[in-house]
């Protein structure tokens, strides 16, 4: 391809060099044409955004819109990322060519970029195969949890999952797992990016040859063995199979146009249930997510409309929805006379934590056994598991946001002979047991179904059991929200203002007229509640996260998302367990407290983020 003419040059050496490199290296005709079109139109701002910066690893790996540019997900950036990954793995694992890597993909795709998760997975495999590294490449799309599970079962040195989970249809991602089956974190993520930067030019034409996966003797398809093994291990989470077989409840399942349908069906059969009723419009993979305004079941009833309509028609009291890559789970329940209750991630965690411990305790009556039992959650999630732990005697730990931190901690605890029963993050990410080291919507769906079946035979439903938990352990009321900000300098400015609210180095003293008694800033490592003023959680300089503890017991956190252009906001109020005046609140008192928390959340956004002044888009779904 001929270089752009001088008339087309921008006059900016860095940009011109980036354009030339792209046109020299990219062999995808669709993304080459995108850059050529931007050059011809003189759209220098767009070119700068696409070509003058690179992606970095967030809480779920590399994630960005598909399309041309070094800052986006496309053939070239996936090849570059895989070359860097190979170089780093070669340095860390002398037996890389014996153990190989696992590669999986979801059902995403973008026609105008000639880009699909399957193609990107094949290119990832081609780079590894070009260096004679064995590749365990799934032959069809799989749930994200299958990749970390396969890494452990096959003894691979790493795994790659091509997915953007619940992000908008324009996005895709490159998620990397370490040899222990947990997502990579520091220092591996930084070192891999350094290796990428050292060798940006594709090594050879072999890196572009998708067909290598069909002809190479080093490529295997682990689908049948891994699926069989996964379902066998899933039985360890099934406690009442005979009861499940007699369950009269019907369940509706939506896979949100993603990969979950077949796998949830198999999981239900493994537990002894009849298969759930699929939402026909959303059963099959569709990269356009045609029937939903947003492919994230966490958004609630607005995106569960088809599921609820089908459940009403079929007289099914429970709706289960897995996100497109089936690592998250949303649950809704029909309430007598009150419509449908969509459980938050924190509420589902209260139910699942209670369920997992109750069944474990039935099998382990010796009081000494509880000393080596753990539950985990991320620091922005509800403290309900911490309350359980204090009452029941097991151990609880919290981690930084992102399931990668939970996965590594589970591995460390297991190595020391401990049992991790349950882990979660508030964004509907759950893990029952510890044989997969990432959140898992497939297993969670089956566990929730069994819990609902068990409660039905006790003449209870999920929501009733949730309130029994809160009456026993104290109400844990939480609210979450977010604003969208596409401009990183604005985000930095917002958090700089918070850190210098009352002058240099002075955090806010009040919010909504309520005194702030403690501030923890994980980005800087500051924690006013500690004697040495240093955060117990590790410093996380790559993103912003500040937590405020208020005089009235509210705890609120503001943080940047690791996967989307959002500032997320969390607030929780925890009543003390055993405090009858709190635990026996009538529904009107609980509603009043929820209103207070909602009002506080609104004030938190207005006072600290200033959405109108900073042109932030409020959550609108």
Automatic annotation (TrEMBL):
It comes from Takifugu flavidus. It holds the Pfam family PGM_PMM_III. The keyword Nucleus does not apply. GO terms for biological process: glucose metabolic process. Residues 55-198, 229-334, 345-457 form the Alpha-D-phosphohexomutase alpha/beta/alpha domain. Coiled coil: none annotated. It is found in: Cytoplasm. GO terms for molecular function: glucose-1,6-bisphosphate synthase activity; intramolecular phosphotransferase activity; magnesium ion binding. GO terms for cellular component: cytoplasm; nucleus. Keywords: Carbohydrate metabolism, Cytoplasm, Glucose metabolism, Isomerase, Magnesium, Metal-binding, Phosphoprotein. InterPro entries: A-D-PHexomutase_a/b/a-I, A-D-PHexomutase_a/b/a-I/II/III, A-D-PHexomutase_a/b/a-II, A-D-PHexomutase_a/b/a-III, A-D-PHexomutase_C_sf, A-D-PHexomutase_CS, Alpha-D-phosphohexomutase_SF. PROSITE patterns: PGM_PMM. This is Glucose 1,6-bisphosphate synthase. Belongs to the phosphohexose mutase family. Its cofactor is Mg(2+).
């Amino acid at each position: 391809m001929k270089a752009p003419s001088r008339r087309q040059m921008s006059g900016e050496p860095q940009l011109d060099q980036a354009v030339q490199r792209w046109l020299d290296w990219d062999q995808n005709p669709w993304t080459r044409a995108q850059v050529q079109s931007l050059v011809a139109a003189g759209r220098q701002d767009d070119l700068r955004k696409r070509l003058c910066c690179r992606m970095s690893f967030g809480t779920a790996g590399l994630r960005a819109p598909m399309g041309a540019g070094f800052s986006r997900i496309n053939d070239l950036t996936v090849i570059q990322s895989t070359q860097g990954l190979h170089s780093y793995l070669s340095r860390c694992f002398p037996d890389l060519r014996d153990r190989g890597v696992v590669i999986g993909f979801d059902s995403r795709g973008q026609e105008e970029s000639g880009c699909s998760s399957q193609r990107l997975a094949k290119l990832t495999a081609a780079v590894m195969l070009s260096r004679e590294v064995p590749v365990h490449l799934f032959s069809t799309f799989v749930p994200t949890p299958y990749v970390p599970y396969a890494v452990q079962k096959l003894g691979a040195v790493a795994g790659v999952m091509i997915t953007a989970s619940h992000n908008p249809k324009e996005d895709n991602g490159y998620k990397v797992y370490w040899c222990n089956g947990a997502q990579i974190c520091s220092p591996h993520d930084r070192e891999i990016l350094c290796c990428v930067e050292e060798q940006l030019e594709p090594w050879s034409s072999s890196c572009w040859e998708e067909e290598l996966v069909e002809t190479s003797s080093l490529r295997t398809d682990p689908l049948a063995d891994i699926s069989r093994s996964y379902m066998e291990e899933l039985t360890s989470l099934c406690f009442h199979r005979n009861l499940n077989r007699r369950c009269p409840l019907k369940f509706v399942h939506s896979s949100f146009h993603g990969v979950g349908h077949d796998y949830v069906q198999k999981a239900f059969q493994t537990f002894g249930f009849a298969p759930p009723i699929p939402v026909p419009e959303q059963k099959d993979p569709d990269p356009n997510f045609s029937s939903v305004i947003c492919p994230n079941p966490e958004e609630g009833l607005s995106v569960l409309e088809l599921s609820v309509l089908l459940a009403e028609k079929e007289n099914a009291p429970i709706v289960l929805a897995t996100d497109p890559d089936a690592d998250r789970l949303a649950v809704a329940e029909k309430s007598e006379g009150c419509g449908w209750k969509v459980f938050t991630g924190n509420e589902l965690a209260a139910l699942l934590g209670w369920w997992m411990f109750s069944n474990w305790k039935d099998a382990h009556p010796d009081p000494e056994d509880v000393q080596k039992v753990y539950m985990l959650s991320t620091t922005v999630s509800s403290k309900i598991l911490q309350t359980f732990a204090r009452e029941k005697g097991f151990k609880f730990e919290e981690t930084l946001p992102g399931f990668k931190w939970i996965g590594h901690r589970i591995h460390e605890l297991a190595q020391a002979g401990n049992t991790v029963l349950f882990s979660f993050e508030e964004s509907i990410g759950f893990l029952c047991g510890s044989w997969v080291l990432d959140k898992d919507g497939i297993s969670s769906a089956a566990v929730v179904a069994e819990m609902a079946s068990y409660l039905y035979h006790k003449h209870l439903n999920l929501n009733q059991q949730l309130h029994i938990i809160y009456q026993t352990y104290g109400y844990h009321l939480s609210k979450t929200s977010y604003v969208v900000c596409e401009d990183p300098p604005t985000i930095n400015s917002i958090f700089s203002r918070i850190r210098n609210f009352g002058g240099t180095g002075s955090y806010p003293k009040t919010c909504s007229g309520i005194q702030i008694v403690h501030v923890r800033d994980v980005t800087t490592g500051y924690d006013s509640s500690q004697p040495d003023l240093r955060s117990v959680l590790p410093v996380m300089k790559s993103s912003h996260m500040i937590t405020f503890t208020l005089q009235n017991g509210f705890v609120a956190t503001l943080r940047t998302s690791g996967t989307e252009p959002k500032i997320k906001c969390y607030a929780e109020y925890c009543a003390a367990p055993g405090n009858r005046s709190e635990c026996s609140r009538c529904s009107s008192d609980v509603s009043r407290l929820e209103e207070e928390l909602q009002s506080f959340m609104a004030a938190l956004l207005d006072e600290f983020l200033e959405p109108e002044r900073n042109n932030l888009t409020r959550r609108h779904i």
